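Section 5.1 Outputs to date
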Amino acid sequence: MSNFLSETRLGKRLGAKGLYITMGACLIALAGAGAAAYNKAVSDMTDSIVIEEPRTVQQADNKADDVPKSNDTSSSKAETDSSSKADESSKISDDIKTQPNVMPVNGDIINPFSNGELVKDETLGVWKTHDGVDIKADVGTQVKAMNKGRVLEVKNDPLWGNCIVIDHGSGLVGYYYSLSKAMNVTEGDQVNAGDVIGAVGDTAECEAGELSHLHFGLKKNGQWIDPLEFIGLDFTK
């Protein structure tokens, strides 16, 4: 009886507040149970998820492996071109060595190569360099190619008359001046050592005061050189 009275008094004291406290406790219990259920569900879902790498990354990697680098291709092409040019140059040099040099005409040397020094030009009356050799020869004498090569020019020059220019390879170019009109080659022709390319014509106006002759010059890599020294002749002995 005393317990009942005590509970009754407590209930009265608590009144509406007791009801609210009881309901709050129930809500807290429900929230805790819900949170536990949510965490378990999330954990189960995470375990079932399999993360895959993006396909775009894999495709990019495959592409990088399969496609050759552009720099490697350019480098390979440059090496091939360089090798081809070197082989071609070597071939030209070997060709020259296999054919002996010959004098374009045989005769006395009227005017030697001046090697850059000024000499008196008796025709023009001026001092200038003589960048070739004047070889005495009668008009009509056959003129031969010093060595094999390709004809670069066939022309008529106001000062030097009828001219033939031949690329003999390895930077060597031959100049055959004061020829007649009857020339046996045209631009682009290939010639061998000793082939007749024309005839002496005595057509060089700048050297008209001399006896009939062939003016023959040689350039090596763009510089005038002594043709007789190159061919291996010495007319001073």
